[in-house]
Design brief:
Length: 103
């Protein structure tokens, strides 16, 4: 969803996040999770959810929003949960090829 097929490793993720947040100027982002579902065992877990990202002006006025689907695969090592796989997506209109970012 962020303009690349994958972001491999923490440095690639950090660059992507810095570029995205840096592009916002003085805008803020509200992130909301809906329909969160989890499956958890002793050392592996899967989470899925719908996520809404809302762009807000510095005064808190809603400017725009988008939705996507999120899936995380997590592994527990040394007592700490770490995301080892993340997938985000949104439905595509097969006739136009456009992504639907409104749920």
């Amino acid at each position: 969803m962020w303009g690349a097929w994958s972001h491999d490793g923490i440095d690639a993720w950090r660059r992507m996040a810095e570029e995205w947040f840096g592009s916002l100027g003085d805008e803020l982002v509200r992130v909301e999770f809906d329909d969160v579902q989890t499956t958890v065992s002793d050392d592996v877990a899967v989470l899925s959810a719908f996520v809404t990202f809302t762009g807000l002006s510095a005064d808190g006025e809603e400017l725009r929003s988008m939705n996507n689907r999120l899936t995380w695969g997590l592994r527990k090592a040394d007592g700490t949960w770490k995301v080892v796989h993340e997938h985000t997506s949104a439905p595509v209109d097969m006739a136009t090829g456009k992504v639907d970012l409104k749920r």
